[in-house]
Amino acid sequence: MSLDGPRRHHRRTDSTNDRARELALAGAESGTFVTADEQTAGRGRRGRRWSAPPGAALLCSAILRPLEARHTLLPLAVPVAVCEAAESLAPVECLVKWPNDVWLRERKLAGVLIEARPPEWAVIGVGLNLAVADADFPDDLRWPATSLGHGVGTDQALAALRESLGRWVTAEPDDVASAFASRDALRGREIAWEGAAGAGGSGLGRAAGIDERGNLIVETSSGDRITLGSGEVSLRLS
Ligand code: BTN
């Protein structure tokens, strides 16, 4: 399966994920990409907003259909693809902060918002900062952000992302898990979590990789091993 379908570009729209969702509902083909120079209501995970100055970030949403068993680790495959795209464009090395933030030098370079109607389709939204000045990031970010720089433009970034996403959305789950493991920014580090179902709401522990479903494994201070399937996970800064 490739992700080389048509591109719908908007100079300004509320959210490329919303535009892509409409297209998915109307039957648009897999690999359709929606892009925008600017979003007026860009959305992040957990109900947060996502903003970037016009033209300073790659803002795109891809339709993937249908969803199959091999897409179990899609939320991890996408940030791996974003890392590879970024590394093909500039001399950088990226990591993934579970589940799907892309980090460059401990700062957030890109975010991923996947919205799906299984087994029919998923909309894969990616915001990749290319040339956002430090002063232009919102003041209320939970974690510092950064940009790729090196003069990389949005069309160049989109071409690289299409190529790497096409490879990673068709990858076997074992390969996705290995690639994620080699880029796991949290592994071995002290973390805090909150809002995680089945994990007592919040807690502290040490990240210990992912299980076969892509859940985060955590070793608590009492020696228990638990898994987090969702919720907010942050590094514990001491
Ligand atoms: C996150 O880190 O919370 C996810 C951010 C995802 C942002 C992208 S920008 C393109 C697409 N359209 C949206 O409204 N959100 C995603």
Notes on the protein architecture:
It is a single chain. With 238 residues, the protein is α+β, with helices and mostly antiparallel strands. It has helices spanning 16-25, 74-89, 154-168, 173-181, and strands at residues 7-13, 33-39, 57-64, 94-97, 101-104, 107-117, 121-129, 190-196, 201-210, 216-220, 225-228, 232-235. The protein has a seven-stranded mixed beta sheet, sandwiched between helices. The relative contact order is 0.15. The model has no long low-confidence stretch (mean pLDDT 93). The chain binds biotin. Biotin binds next to helix 1, strand 3, strand 6 and strand 7.
Give keywords.
238 residues, alpha+beta, 7-stranded mixed beta sheet, 5-stranded antiparallel beta sheet, 12 strands, binds biotin
Hey, roughly how much beta strand do the residues contain?
Answer: 25-35%
Derived from helix and strand composition plus strand pairing, the structural class reads: alpha+beta
What gross morphology would you assign? globular
Q: How far apart are the termini?
A: 45 Å
Bound molecules: biotin
Q: What is Rg?
A: 17 Å
Helix and strand succession?
A: EHEEHEEEEHHEEEEE
What is the residue-averaged pLDDT? 93
Number of helices, counting only DSSP H or I runs of 4 residues or more? 4
Task: Tell me briefly what this model is.
With 238 residues, this protein is of the alpha+beta class. It is 21% helix and 34% strand. The model has no long low-confidence stretch (mean pLDDT 93).
List the helices and strands and how they pair.
Layout lengths: L6 E7 L2 H10 L7 E7 L17 E8 L9 H16 L4 E4 L3 E4 L2 E11 L3 E9 L24 H15 L4 H9 L8 E7 L4 E10 L5 E5 L4 E4 L3 E4 L3
Parallel strand pairs: 1-2
Antiparallel strand pairs: 2-3, 3-7, 4-5, 5-6, 6-7, 8-9, 8-12, 9-10, 10-11
The structure holds biotin.
Biotin binds next to helix 1, strand 3, strand 6 and strand 7.
